[in-house]
Amino acid sequence: MKSVVGVVVSNKMQKSVVVGVDRLFHHKLYNRYVKRTSKFMAHDENNTCNIGDRVRLDPSRPLSKHKHWVVAEILKKARIYVPPSAADSVASANIKKEVPPSSTS
C-alpha cells in the first residue's frame, strides 16, 4: 500500500483520528467523474491533529481492530475559530456599566 492524503474528520479519541480521503474515478456508463470518500482511522501519537487538518497517512501493521494507518505528517493546519472567552465578555460588560450616562439637564 502507498501513502494517502486526506482531511481529519474527527479527533474525539485518544491518540486516534478519523481521516477522510477523497478519490475521483471515471464512471464509464455516465461518462462523468465521480468523487468518493473513504474514512480511515489513523494513529496520532501526540494528539496534535485537529479537525480540518490536511495530513499524510502511512500504512502500518494493525494497531487495533480498525487502525491500520499512522499519521506521518501534518501538511496544513486548519484555521480554527476561537470565540472570545467568557472572561473577556464579562470585563467589557463591567467597563460599560462603570461609565456614567451623560445627562442633558
TrEMBL record:
A GO cellular component term found in this entry reads: ribosome
What's a Pfam family in this record?
Ribosomal_S17
- Describe the task this protein carries out: One of the primary rRNA binding proteins, it binds specifically to the 5'-end of 16S ribosomal RNA.
Question: Where are the coiled-coil regions?
Answer: none
This chain's protein is named Small ribosomal subunit protein uS17c
Q: Which UniProt keywords apply?
A: Ribonucleoprotein, Ribosomal protein, RNA-binding, rRNA-binding
Which SUPFAM superfamilies does this chain map to? Answer: Nucleic acid-binding proteins (SSF50249)
Q: Which GO terms describe its biological process?
A: translation
Which family is this protein grouped under? Belongs to the universal ribosomal protein uS17 family.
GO molecular function annotations of the record: rRNA binding; structural constituent of ribosome
According to its UniProt entry, this protein's organism is Rubroshorea leprosula
